[in-house]
Write a structure and sequence with these properties.
The protein contains eight helices and twelve strands. The chain has 232 residues and is an alpha/beta fold. A five-stranded parallel beta sheet has the order 2-1-3-4-5, sandwiched between helices. The protein has a four-stranded antiparallel beta sheet with strand order 6-7-8-9, with helices on one face. Strand 6 and strand 7 form a beta hairpin. The longest helix has 17 residues. It starts with a strand and ends in a 7-residue tail after the last strand.
């Protein structure tokens, strides 16, 4: 029986979700102390998390980032906030899907089953975590995190995609057009300046790890990353 962790501060809704999912042979655990979300997650060891955005003290985006430091299990946001930016924030902070309230329980069930199949069942590509290692730098592409010389930094989803593209072609130029296509596949009206913002963010996080200016701008072409070698 697979366990679903419900992180929802509306106790009535959490109970209704739990009762509905239990009819389909899911074991559910609802967070009761919102200062102990991580502890409840570790104790429950869930296969999937249903996570609200508006929570006491810290919001769902924060908790999603914390969970992603140690787990790749599917995280589905459930929220009454239906703006496009909220959905983008959910995905960039490590979420796998976003369901707006009010919702149909059948839709929630279908999405849960779909994500479980992709993560663990017939659609799962691998049970091993995907990571890139070069020059002492490790990118955990699905955790949105980088490590270097014993230090780590969190990334957003877009930052992770950007850095992965550069690392896969280390020492070679990745064009702006290639990066734009990878990062915003279905969006055709992205301001060219938006990519500059993400490049700046990635450079700053690399610099915080002691990597300096390793992302080079190749004027008129794109960007190139060059790692210095193994860390001291």
């Amino acid at each position: 029986m697979e366990t679903i962790l419900i992180v929802e501060d509306d106790a009535k809704l959490a109970d209704l979700l739990g009762a509905y999912l239990s009819k389909y042979e899911f074991h559910t655990v609802a967070v009761e102390d919102f200062n102990r979300v991580l502890e409840t997650f570790e104790q429950a060891a869930p296969s999937l998390v249903l996570l609200d955005v508006n929570l006491p003290r810290f919001d769902g985006f924060y908790w999603c980032r914390q969970l992603r430091k140690s787990s790749l299990c599917p995280i589905l946001f459930i929220s009454a906030r239906d703006s496009g930016m909220d959905q983008v924030m959910a995905l960039e902070n490590g979420g796998d899907d976003y369901i707006t309230k009010p919702f149909q329980y059948e839709v929630v069930l279908a999405k849960i089953r779909s994500h479980l199949r992709r993560a663990y069942g017939s659609y799962a590509q691998t049970q091993e975590e995907r990571k890139l290692q070069t020059g002492g730098l490790t990118l955990f592409a699905e955790r949105y995190m980088i490590q270097y010389a014993g230090q780590s930094a969190e990334l957003t989803q877009k930052e992770s995609v950007l850095l992965e593209a550069l690392l896969l072609k280390e020492g070679r130029v990745v064009t702006r057009e290639q990066l734009l296509d990878l990062m915003w596949k279905d969006q055709h009206f992205i301001d060219d300046n938006t990519l500059n913002v993400y490049i700046t963010r990635v450079r700053r996080k690399l610099k915080e790890l002691g990597l300096g200016e390793i992302v080079e701008t190749v004027r008129g072409a794109g960007y190139r990353i060059s790692l210095p070698g193994d860390p001291p």
